[in-house]
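INFO  loader      accepted 1 record
INFO  loader      residues=390
INFO  predictor   begin
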Amino acid sequence: MTTAPLLRVEGVRAVYGDTVALHGISLDIADNEFFALLGPSGCGKTTLLRSIAGFETPASGRIEVDGRDLLGMPPHKRPVNMMFQSYALFPHLSVEKNIAYGLEAEGVGRAEVKLRVGEVMEVVGLTKLSARRPSQLSGGQRQRVALARAIVKRPRLLLLDEPLSALDRQVRSSMQLELKRLQHEVGLTFVVVTHDQEEAMSMADRVAVLRDGHLEQLDTPQELYAHPATRFVASFIGTANLLDGTATTAGVDVPGVGAVEAAHRLAAGSPATAVVRPEDVDLTADAATSALRGTVVDTYFLGGASTISVEVPGLAAPIRATVHGTSRLARGADVGVRFGRASAVALDAPAASVHAAQADGSAQAASSPAGGPQAAPASAAASPQEGVSA
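INFO  predictor   done
INFO  writer      dumping tokens
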């Protein structure tokens, strides 16, 4: 028995003049799911969020919540609430009054307002700050007020547009955990827009990666990292060594490197990119016995791990390797290089597989079988290797 999704987006296309912002986006979001829309600036993620909220009207497609079409419904009547990037708090009102404002505007009774505001302030840890005004709060506290104001109306769906972008790194990290905890406690479905892949990967149950208005891949953070569907996803999610070459039955044949074993479903002989994460690169000081050798050009320590860059003859960019703790390899050292687990994606063609429920319903894919794999083309690269850090 399958459960119908809370939110269903079907073939949503958005156009601004001659610019197509969304190319037939289709995706489902489950009840009580923490969902992230991730991508670089201008990819269409905020346009999609605003279309769900009712602040943008798509050129075509459907958006449903609990099976009800939202597109003919004004924003204030949708079972959706949106928390803006700027927080938009009233500076002359106290924390308590800011949170209560939406309920009072809807004519909710005074006793009910007091009860619901008190409950939500307890959940977000603002009870002791109820009388303060926004100017007397830290960035993290203001973020909690904005979140509480959105939650108190008990929407079926809460939309958050870059909710943590105004916070410094340390506060942002703590608020990522706080948002995830609150989402479970209040039992709402969260959809968050972010360009920060670390933020999306740490908070979301599933992530939709957008690029130029296309849906590149929709999957869990773990699958996005381990099994990217396109070269763009591989480069955008985390850090990756991208080695361009030709697909073989066992992996990818990379000029200057040789055969790299990699799991894939690509046709032998087609252009392909081997994706090797830094933690899957093994370095050895015994370079003489290694088939692939290089020279350490840089090493830097990042708390619990060190990243080492190794220049390999024939490759345009250094190979990046991650080791636990500090590294004993000094700059200029000759090392052997061996690749462990790797995956492969098409170099300049659509993704090999994207689940039907995640498919990009663009006009480009109209000739594909119903529910078939659809994704935007991955970008091609001229060099046989590229080290990417998002």
